[in-house]
Amino acid sequence: MTGMDYAKAAGWALLILALNMLLATVAILISNVTRDEPLAPEAIAVWTAPIGGFLLSFLVLQWVTTRRPDRPWLPFALAVAAAYVLIDAGIGLATGGVAVFTPLFALSLSLLLAGCVLGAWTSRPSAS
To answer: Which residues contact 126 (CB under 8 A, 6 or more apart)?
Structure first.
């Protein structure tokens, strides 16, 4: 992989993170509009963020790997996941850092890693 591939992996990681935050925000809005008594945003995001991270990373990596079948799929998937971890943990540490050291954060990032690898793996070129 080239330096440009790593830069692109960071860009895809940032996109996945932004989409995941948007998904959590929409879930919070919908949930609180439809309820008589609103829930705390954390109570909703705790469920939507890990699942959304898995699904978004799976779909994005599947699409990206299909577009560039010549790029090594596993190193690229791991680079996207690593960039996501660095960005997400950096944001978490900059905003107080407590949530970065929880089992839920570890679960969320593990699901993201699984989504990246499975998405890239399912669309890799088959060996002929």
So the answer is: none
Residue 60 domain-assigned (yes or no)? yes
Residue at 53 is within a domain = yes
> What size, in residues, is the chain?
128
The total number of structural domains that make up the chain: 1
Residue type at position 109:
L
Instruction: Please give the span between the terminal C-alpha atoms of the chain, in angstroms, as a whole number.
Output: 22
Please check the confidence at residue 34 and state whether its pLDDT lies above 90: no
Residue 127 belongs to some domain of the structure: no
| Residue 97 domain flag | yes
DSSP state letters, 50-93: HHHHHHHHHHHHHHHHHH-TTS-HHHHHHHHHHHHHHHHHHHHH
Q: Where in the sequence is the domain holding 79, given as residue range(s)?
A: 3-122
**Structure confidence by residue, pLDDT tens digits, 61-83:** 999 999 988 899 999 999 999 99
Please give the distance of CA 17 from its chain centroid, rounded to a whole number. 5
Tell me phi and psi for residue 96, to 5 degrees.
Answer: 130, -35
Using alpha carbons, select from 77, 65, 57 the residue that is nearest to residue 15: 57
Cα–chain center distance at 90: 14
